[in-house]
Specification:
Layout: E1 13-17, H1 22-26, H2 29-38, E2 43-48, H3 50-55, E3 65-68, H4 85-98, E4 102-105, H5 113-118, E5 124-129, E6 138-141, H6 148-157, H7 174-179, H8 181-187, H9 210-219
Parallel strand pairs: 1-2, 1-4, 2-3, 4-5, 5-6
Helix pairs in contact: 2-6
Length: 220
C-alpha cells in the first residue's frame, strides 16, 4: 500500500534524467521499475544519451521511450564537444511542450542537474540535493559513498514508489535472441564467462595486464 502522503495525484507523464553509460543506466532500473508499479498508467520518458535510444526500446525495461539530451556541462558531456546554446534552448522548449507531470533526477549530486530539470517545467520534481545545490520539491540528501542503486530507490520512495526489488532486470526480446543466434549456436550450450575490462573512469578499472592471466585461470 502506497502512503497517501507520498503518492502524487494525476501523474500521466514522467521524465527520468539519467544520461550516462550502460552501468549508470542499469543501477536506475530497480527504482524505475518501482515508479512503474506506483504509477502504472504513466508514460516514462528517459532523458539520456543517443545510444540509449537503441538499447532502451519498449519492453526491454519499464521505460517507454528515450529523448536525447544535448551536450550540457555536468549532465551530458562528450569528448571534443562543447555546449551549444541553441541546442539546449530547443531541447528545453521541446520538453516544456511535453508537459511532464513529474521529473525525476537520477543524475549526480544535483549541482547541475537540479537546475537542469527545473527548466523542463514539470509540475513536480524529485531527486538528490547536495547542501549547496538547488533543491527539487522532494529530495534525499546526497552522500558520495552511498550505493547509487540504494540512492535511486530512496528517491523513488519520496514519491510513494516503495515496491521495489534491488536486482536490475533487463528483459530479453525476441530480436535480441535473433541477433545472438549464431553465437549461441557456436557455443552449443557450453558454459561461458564474459570479461569486460573497461570503465568510463579509468580509476575504476582493474589493470588491463591482469586480464590475460585471469582468462587463463578461468579457462583451466
Amino acid at each position: 500500500m502506497i502512503p497517501h502522503r507520498l503518492r502524487l495525484d494525476d501523474i500521466r507523464k514522467i521524465a527520468v534524467l539519467r544520461s550516462g553509460a550502460l552501468g549508470d543506466l542499469l543501477v536506475t532500473l530497480p527504482a524505475i521499475d518501482a515508479i512503474r508499479r506506483a504509477y502504472p498508467g504513466a508514460e516514462i520518458v528517459l532523458l539520456g544519451k543517443e545510444w540509449q535510444k537503441e538499447f532502451v526500446v519498449k519492453g526491454r525495461t519499464a521505460v517507454d521511450r528515450v529523448v536525447t539530451v544535448p551536450v550540457s556541462k555536468g549532465i551530458c558531456e562528450e569528448p571534443g564537444r562543447m555546449e551549444n546554446e541553441q541546442d539546449l534552448l530547443d531541447f528545453f522548449n521541446a520538453m516544456k511542450e511535453e508537459s511532464f507531470d513529474l521529473a525525476v533526477n537520477f543524475q549526480g549530486d544535483g549541482k547541475y542537474s537540479n537546475s537542469f530539470i527545473q527548466k523542463i517545467e514539470a509540475r513536480f520534481t524529485v531527486g538528490t540535493a547536495f547542501p549547496n545545490a538547488q533543491h527539487p520539491d522532494r529530495y534525499v540528501r546526497y552522500f558520495y559513498y552511498q550505493s547509487e542503486l540504494i540512492r535511486f530507490v530512496e528517491i523513488a520512495g519520496q514519491i510513494g514508489a516503495l515496491d521495489f526489488e534491488l536486482e536490475p532486470v533487463v528483459h530479453v526480446l525476441e530480436k535480441d535472441r535473433e541477433e545472438v543466434a549464431d553465437l549461441l549456436q557456436l557455443l552449443s550450450g557450453k558454459a561461458f564467462i564474459v570479461l569486460n575490462p573497461y570503465a568510463t573512469d579509468s580509476r575504476r578499472m582493474w589493470p588491463l595486464e591482469n586480464y590475460p592471466q585471469l582468462a587463463d585461470e578461468l579457462y583451466t
